[in-house]
Amino acid sequence: PGRVVTLLEDCGACTWGVAYEVRGEQIAASLEYLNMREAVLGGYDTKLVKFHPQEKDAEEPILALVYIATPQNPSYLGPASEEDIAAQIIVSSGCAGHNIEYLLRLADFMRYFCPQAEDKHLFSIEEALISILPCLYLTEESLEET
Question: Which UniProt keywords are listed (predicted)?
């Protein structure tokens, strides 16, 4: 529960990321798991999109399955300022871990693997989160000193 990074449908937009290929016996198990997690429990729609690999030998885009957030999801929080999003991330966690780690890992991934993609929104949320974090670790002694 809480804020996580979700894709919202935008026909003119581009999303950077990693595509995973599953084969053989992995296909059914992977789809069953992802459909339960994302579509049934998570309130996402599935879409097939064109994925353009960065590898130089990739001649044509491949079809990839993505999960698109829907406002009908009971956990969908809608638009908010970067500061409000960061504040919510700080107090949220799910079965896969804390949302702080999720955000920081995503920002690191984008910085190192997709440096040509300028995701100002993501990095503004990261900056807002980092500016809030020291406030969480104030002790009674440090409060008395201030």
Answer: Lyase, Transferase
141 pLDDT more than 60: no
| Number of neighbours of residue 103 by Cβ within 10 angstroms | 23
Would you say 68 and 83 are in contact if contact means Cβ atoms under 8 Å apart?
no
- 38 in catalytic set: yes
| Cβ neighbour number for residue 85 with a 10 Å cutoff | 21
Q: Which of 38, 55, 118, 126 is catalytic?
A: 38
Please, which residues bridge with residue 42 across strands?
none
Q: What value does the mean pLDDT of the chain take?
A: 82
Eight-class DSSP state of 60: S
CA distance linking residue 83 with residue 141, whole number of Å: 27
Instruction: Write 92-98 long-range contacts (CB < 8 A, 24+).
Output: 92/1, 92/2, 92/3, 93/1, 93/2, 94/1, 94/2, 94/4
**Which residue bears the tokens 């693997």?**
113
Helix (H) or strand (E) holding 45: strand 44-51
Assess contact for 63 and 51: CB atoms under 8 A.
Answer: yes
